[in-house]
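User: I'm preparing a small set of examples for a lab meeting where we compare how different chains pack in three dimensions. I only have the primary sequence for this one, and I'd like the structure in token form so I can line it up with the others. Please keep the answer compact; I'll paste it straight into my notes.
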Amino acid sequence: MKKKPFTLIELLVVIAIIAILAAMLLPALNQARERSRQINCVSNHKQVMSANTMYADDNLAYLPPLNLGISWADRIDKTWWPNLLAKYLPVSKWIDENNGKPKTGPMLCPSVTDAGTGGGIGSHSSGDNHKIAGYGWSVKMARIRKPAANAAYGDASCYKADGTIVPAFTFTCWCWNSRWMNKNDNNYNLLPRHGKSSNLGFLDGHVESRNYLEMTNDYADYFGHISNYNGY
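Assistant: Understood. Below is the structure token output for the 232-residue chain.
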């Protein structure tokens, strides 16, 4: 029997069907890919929290400060919190070691595709009140009454005045829920990195993924504080 070739119309219909199926599957594939990155990010946070505990064990129970210098003007090279935790983590390459900017390792969020300006994981410090660390100082673990409810590190970014996002490396300013996705803020904030949620490493060592409502309802003690630092 003589085989009848496809007509141009039939070929276009087949291509259109394939395109429609691809468009239907693409969101699911992207969600699965992001879910995988979020799981990797949780693993990174767990390593950071383990390093945080080991640092405290070696430093009279004090948590890592933002920087060993007493102010931004008096900051000391290679003594940002990523530098201080680096000895307890897999060996990292650095974008800028003086400013505590790792290029590889668990102090980066896998969902941040361009880590040149920030790795996406920040420390709760140097911002509003109820912080646990700053320039040249930090609190002792024993002074935190609710370590399981107090986040030390988490997915963080900086909304610039033009609305662009710069992933955070060194510090975040999380305390007020009004700063969640607050554009034109020009400050480092806790921002949803994985869809509508953020990964958080708590001071007892566990890691959770929380969305905005869970942050502002389940963990709010002081009229909208995201983290309830009420232990000191």
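A couple of notes for your slides: The mean pLDDT is 78. The beta strands are 94-96, 101-102, 121-123, 133-134, 137-138, 151-159, 165-167, 187-190, 197-202, 207-211.

User: Perfect, thanks.
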